[in-house]
Write a structure and sequence with these properties.
The complex is a heterodimer of chains A (111) and B (111).
Chain A lengths: L3 E4 L2 E4 L5 E7 L5 E7 L5 E9 L2 E4 L6 E3 L9 E3 L8 E8 L6 E2 L3 E5 L1
Chain B lengths: L2 E4 L4 E4 L4 E3 L1 E4 L5 E7 L5 E7 L5 E4 L2 E4 L9 E3 L8 E8 L5 E3 L3 E6 L1
Parallel strand pairs in B: 2-12
Antiparallel strand pairs in B: 1-4, 3-9, 5-6, 5-10, 7-8, 8-9, 10-11, 10-12
Classes of the chains: A mainly beta (111), B mainly beta (111).
Chain lengths: 111, 111
């Protein structure tokens, strides 16, 4: 079955560390997205990519970085510059103007 | 700018009760409208959509009608079940293909 796979499901980071969240899709979608979800705040867009080797900042890109070297992969790195990284991170992909498909998310916590 | 406003939760109902979750939007032009559902610990799943005025989206007993005159897309279900307990997100997509999400409404159904 086609879908979006996020890993790991739970991730812990020590202060000062960078961590990378994985997002892989086998839906052959061109566009991919990263969102951050905090309680009571809905989803906020971090970065998005509409085509391989290209990506744009979303509303809250500071302290994050991404790459899009392959169509099926869009990893998100949470850097030490992100001072409040504890959140639920959701990856999504989309074909054309169709609705987004979402992965099951990664919950990041700070030790 | 574009925005989505949905009723604050949590909403608590007894099983078999009638459900309405209000959603209103602000947008230029004619956006597409969506309802997504998020079950605990999971990503978002598309529940239903409508792409033009007076369209009715429906799925799993849920319905929502695109009302341009009131800029609304309220979610309804005639008889809710315990398994409907989740967080529901209203969203819009405009011509620029960016998706704007509401803050989500948590629904609790009591047996």
């Amino acid at each position: 079955d086609g879908g979006i796979t996020q890993s790991p499901k739970y991730l812990f980071r020590k202060e000062g560390q960078n961590v990378t969240l994985s997002c892989e899709q086998n839906l052959n979608h061109d566009a991919m997205y990263w969102y951050r979800q905090d309680p009571g705040q809905g989803l906020r867009l971090i970065y998005y990519s509409q085509i391989v080797n290209d990506f744009q900042k979303g509303d809250i890109a500071e302290g994050y970085s991404v790459s899009r070297e392959k169509k099926e992969s869009f990893p998100l790195t949470v850097t030490s510059a992100q001072k409040n990284p504890t959140a639920f991170y959701l990856c999504a992909s989309r074909h054309g103007n169709q609705p987004q498909h979402f992965g099951d998310g990664t919950r990041l916590s700070i030790l | 700018g574009n925005s989505v406003t949905q009723m604050e939760g949590p909403v608590t109902l007894s099983e078999e009760a009638f459900l309405t979750i209000n959603c209103t939007y602000t947008a230029t032009g004619y956006p597409s409208l969506f309802w997504y559902v998020q079950y605990p610990g999971e990503g978002l799943q598309l529940l239903l959509k409508a792409t033009k005025a007076d369209d009715k989206g429906s799925n799993k007993g849920f319905e929502a009608t695109y009302r341009k005159e009131t800029t609304s897309f309220h979610l309804e279900k005639g008889s809710v079940q315990v398994s409907d307990s989740a967080v529901y997100f209203c969203a819009l997509m405009n011509r620029d293909d960016k998706i704007i999400f509401g803050k989500g409404t948590r629904l609790h159904i009591l047996p």
